[in-house]
Amino acid sequence: MPATPWWLFVLPFVAGAGLPLQAGINGQLARHVSSVMAASLISFAVGTVLLLGITLAQRELPALQALRGLSWWHWSGGLFGALFIFTATLAGPRIGALLFMALVLAGQLSAATALDHFGAAGFREAPVSLGKIAGLLLIFAGVWMIRRG
Fold it and tell me: Which of 4, 65, 69, 132 has a CA positioned 20 to 30 A from the CA of residue 10?
């Protein structure tokens, strides 16, 4: 197996670091437009335009036949993205960046543990272990400590 390029470790870190900033920016946007839903839509639309531009520039638009062959669950990724944007816009500014991100991390790692254990959604199978459960419990303890503040 070839070595994993270093940037594949850096990119998720950088993307994750942008999430609390995104939540704050979208919260400010919601105040400005007086609507959490409208702010979420604007945020999603800006991201969609960016991705469309990049996709068109790279000439990577899928063929209509490929889109017809998708299952219902292939389309659900966008739903989760929209749910995250809405939740970040609504909850982030109200509970604070640190607690918001700690809860997001706890949710992400809980779901990731189940996805890996069952090899679901295209992930390689990696059974749950005592160490993984202990790590998750420490994450939840961290959420509790942050909440107590």
Answer: 132
Q: What are phi and psi of 3, to 5 degrees?
A: -65, 145
Amino acid occupying residue 73: W
- In terms of residue numbers, what domain contains 108? 96-149
Of 52, 56, 30, 54, the residue nearest 42 (C-alpha): 30
The whole-model pTM stands at 0.85
User: What's the CA gap between 142 and 102, in Å, rounded?
Assistant: 8
SS (H, E, C) 134-146: HHHHHHHHHHHHH
Query: Are residues 82 and 139 located together in one domain of the fold?
Result: no
One domain for residues 29 and 61: yes
86-135: per-residue pLDDT in tens? Answer: 999 999 999 999 999 999 999 999 999 999 999 999 999 999 999 999 99
